[in-house]
Structures are given as structure tokens and as C-alpha cells.
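retry 2 of 3: previous attempt timed out while embedding adenosine monophosphate. Reduced batch size to 1 and resubmitted. Inputs unchanged:
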Amino acid sequence: MSEIKRLTKPVPPGGVIGIIGGGQLGRMLATAAARLGLKAAIYNDEHNAPAFQVTPLQFVAPYDERNMLTGFAEICDVITFEFENLPAESIAYLASLKPLHPGQRALEITQDRLTEKNFVLSLGLKTAPFAPVSSRDDVAIAFAKLNGPAILKTRRLGYDGKGQAKVTSADEASRAFEGFKSAPAILEGFVDFSFEASVVAARSPDGQFAAYDPPENIHEHHILRRSIVPGQLNKAQSDDAKAIAKKIADALDYVGVLAVELFVGKDGTVMVNEIAPRVHNSGHWTIEACACSQFEQHVRAVAGWPLGDPSRHADAVMENIIGAEADAWESLARSGALHLYGKREARPGRKMGHVTRLKPLTK
Ligand code: AMP
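retry 2 succeeded.
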């Protein structure tokens, strides 16, 4: 394989940040890049991508199409992602052409739930109990080992609860495994958590680290409903969450923003659920409540600029607008800082926008 390209100096204003993926995260990254005088090029596998509405530099092709990847890389100074499930060959190819952040290793580890969980354990951090399953026999053994309700999760390509099934018996686990076409999976013990949280943080090429205050997250039907900051985390848990993010970012020699989804157990223990190697839905409140949003922070980090100040100047509640809820845009616009992602079709479960409401800073 050819050598990996590194950024030797910061991308100057006027430079181009290439973003793989054209969803709302790409759209908000492109907007943040524009504010810094940088341009964004978006690569997406479908035409009607929300991010295409905010930049003229558009590439539409499958994620493994070499010619298009080459043309995209040619106009970019640095390449990053809003969507991390690119085929490994495409990642390696892009990395041979232009600096790519986060890098190949971070993407490889986080694309596979089993590799990710083992990596987290190797850092001495806590996770839910789990066991790998790649056959029906494994499912029975794993279920017996976990000894209680569990969640079967495919190792790859799961998000917002897709590729996941809660199971309460070995038979049910077996049927779920077949339902996922026997794709390699993990069986994870069901955590009776006290609440969910996350930490969004950034690391620069020279190892500078900046973490946002960790929000408490409330999910409904496996989709994030609301992020609240400050939430239920006490000072020790909040510090713990930031330290977890730093440990992970340093171990991956990470560049850019990453998010770590967390479970806080009934005994107060902070456990890692999963790592997202990108900006994250639970960090959207930073647009209004911080001097430098997660989107600007990511652009700064991947472009080799100094990181911005992640401190929070207000309390915030961010609420997702899901499916037909977007029809109420007029009343939502009155209720807070409204973001709509420009999606035409309001399918059930689809994230159409979000609204952030600020309150004076309490802690
Ligand atoms: P994930 O895709 O792994 O982030 O899971 C989506 C959501 O499912 C989480 O935010 C939790 O609400 C729930 N969930 C996932 N894994 C577990 C678990 N082991 N125990 C309890 N709830 C879980």
C-alpha cells in the first residue's frame, strides 16, 4: 500500500475540506467550514443529500468508485467523514491520496463492534458484558454466559437501533441471529442503566485535547430524543467521561471530533457503549451554547488549526425533530433555535431537524 499522506501545514482560508457523506452532519460541517473561510466538497452516494444544498462542490457516486474518489481527492486539501462506514479499500485509497482524518485505524476499529469493544477493554475502560457470535452454537453459548436479557447487535453497519434485537431467551437470540442473516454479531448483556450520556471531544494533530460538557441523553425507540446539559452527571462522572474520551482519542492518535456514548449504571459507574468517530447528534447543542461548536471544532482539528474553546456559556436542551413532527415548523421556530436539514420526505423515524433551547448557566 502507498504511504499515508500527512498534513504538513494548516489548510489556509480558501482551502477545501472534503467530507464523505452528505447528511445533516455533513451539512453542518460544511456550514461551519464556510464560516472559517474554508470550502467544503461533499461526496455522497445519492443525489438529494442535505449537504448538497450548502455547497456547489458535489460528487455523487458509489463509495467504492475509484474515478470519482480520485477526482474528489484531487480538489481536497484534507478529507474527513460524516459517515464512517466506507469500504476499507476506499478508506485506504483516499488515505494514499490526501491527508485523511480521522485515520484508517480509528475507522477500522469503530466500524466493527467486536473490535471496538475489545479496544475499549484494552484501555482498562468498562463496557457492558458481551460475547462474539458467528454461528447458532455461539448464540446459545453466549446467551448462557450472559445469563439474562441481552441485545444482539450486528458487528457492522448498525445505527439508531438498526441491526439490533433485544432477546430474553436463547431461542429468541437464535431467531434474531437468523433474522440478521447470520451476520457476525455480538450478544451484549442488557444494562439496567440509571441514564445514558455521551461525551463529545476533539484532538488536534499535535495532541491538543478539548472536551465539551457531557450531556445526558434520552432515547425513544432507539433514536436520540433529547440531549440535556447539564444533565444528571455529577462532577466526578463528568470528569470521568472526559477522561474516557481523552484516553480513547490518544490511543487512536485521533484527529478531529469524536463522541463516546456512555451508560451510567445504578452504582454510578460510567461504561462505554460505543464510539462514533465523527461529530455527533448529542453535540448539536454546542452550536448555540458554546463559543466554538462541535462542527467548527472538527473543521479546525482536521485542517490543522488551533482548537476552539469548548466551554459552555448557557444550559441547553437539544430536541430532535423526527418524521412528521417537522410539519409543526412554525411553532418550533418560535420555541428555540431551529435547525431543519432540508430533507423533503418526512419518513417515520427520520431525523428532520433539531431545536435547541438555552437557559442561563447554572453549573
Ligand atoms: P447503540 O446502537 O449501541 O448505540 O444502541 C442504541 C440504544 O439502544 C442505546 O442508546 C440504548 O438506549 C440501547 N442499548 C444499546 N445497548 C444496550 C445495552 N447493552 N443495554 C441496554 N440498552 C442498550
